[in-house]
Write a structure and sequence with these properties.
2 copies of one chain form a homodimer.
Chain A (H helix, E strand, L loop, with lengths): L18 H23 L2 H8 L4 H6 L2 H20 L6 H14 L1 H12 L10 H20 L9 H17 L1 H8 L6 H17 L15
Helix pairs in contact in A: 1-2, 1-4, 1-6, 5-6, 5-8, 5-10, 7-8, 8-10
The structure holds a DNA duplex.
DNA sequence: GAGTTAACCAAACAACTGTTTGACACAGTC
DNA sequence: GACTGTGTCAAACAGTTGTTTGGTTAACTC
């Protein structure tokens, strides 16, 4: 049977070759798979199936499983920077962070996995960038201390870590949440409720910025 | 002509048979291995090597990898119950929980892994028991609310979760901690400092029990 | 249209993982 | 000493995993 020959005009609906699209499909599928099962639990075959592409293309486009993992880490690192909004009052920052479980659940899970899989600064490509990102929150805490709104005995770095860990709880401790609250920890309903609660607690701690209406911007 | 039967080591090691000891060796090694790498990342061979026993004994004594995992989960569940001390003031409870990362780092990591690997109440053998264990803390928060020491708008379950997540941060977010504080998140030095900070924050929230004699603090 | 390159695929592949097999050794009993 | 049941082991096993190979096809160039 003679193969019907060439079509000059591109057909969007048909399966045509599109390396960029394929790369993106793989990356998206990899994010979902790694987020769901972690590095060790993720399966190349499952990623390919999710992406709807041949398994071999993962080796073709990326440097195997490990290279693919590095690629999605790099990708999320770029996106996460967008989350940072200097000058945002702390309660609002925390709120946004908690709601990230709704907007980018994969990213939050990825960060949680990487914490448990962590094997030292040298193996963590995000080690430097991340601390830079958090420095903003820490400075914010320091400013509140300087303004006398927070006891000096509080370690700003520790408090920031606590807030971050608390914000990630719906992702890191879903089994505990489901047990004590009976709600679905991944549901929008719960996550929004939880974010609200987080803000209440943050305010209770006195983390409200000195001038809540006019955040001071400085570059 | 049939080959003569191969002789094993002519000089067998002077090792006493001790099934109970072997079981325990395997369980200890399994705790360490599962805590270090999670279920998917753990290797039966590595557990056997850690325990210094033949790999096959894992199948002999337990029901394979999965059975072994269930066995150590069961084991930790029993121990964790000891941690509960009804009537302990909340800040002290939290402090103890944070220090658990020092006493039983494997148990804390196990709980963290199980959160990410969580696939619903039906697959979680600890689902029921855990919520019971936490009920004490939740009731404590409720009591504080009733005593007017904590705003009624605070959801006791959410606050308990936040505290728990915050207490586990040195285990769940070591990469973040190392980045922002420069300290080793698994060191006794840091964990004790962090536990102290947690207590400070808890008191700041007004979680001090009504009758507990605590020195007044001013910032 | 011939030729070239790059995207893609199916199957083969080697390495690894957990489990099973069959044999052996120790301890207790007769 | 022979017998028996259980603890222990090395090796074989079957299933899975990630990667490589070799070939096929679309798109692009001349």
């Amino acid at each position: 049977m003679p193969p019907s020959k060439p079509r000059r005009s591109p057909r969007p609906q048909e399966r045509q070759r599109d390396p960029d699209r394929t790369r993106r499909l793989i990356l998206d599928a990899a994010s979902a798979e790694f987020a769901a099962h972690g590095y060790a639990g993720a399966r190349i075959g499952a990623i390919a199936a999710r992406a709807g592409v041949n398994q071999q293309l993962i080796s073709y486009y990326f440097d195997g499983k490990e290279g693919l993992y590095r690629a999605i880490s790099e990708r999320w690192r770029e996106r996460e920077t967008e989350l940072v909004a200097p000058g945002t009052p702390l309660p609002e920052q925390i709120r946004r962070y908690a709601l990230e479980a709704l907007r980018n659940p994969d990213a939050v899970r990825l960060m949680a996995w990487s914490g448990l899989e962590y094997a030292g600064p040298e193996t963590d490509p995000d080690h430097g960038p991340r601390s830079k990102r958090l420095q903003g929150s820490i400075d914010e805490v320091r400013a509140l201390q300087a303004a006398g709104r927070l006891p000096a005995e509080v370690d700003p770095a520790c408090l920031t870590i606590m807030l971050m860990a608390a914000a990630m709880a719906p992702t890191t401790l879903p089994h505990v949440i489901e047990g004590v609250s009976g709600m679905d920890p991944s549901s929008a309903e719960f996550i929004e409720h939880y974010a609200d609660q987080l803000v209440i607690v943050a305010r209770l701690l006195g983390l409200e910025s000195a001038d809540s209406a006019a955040p001071s911007r400085q570059g």
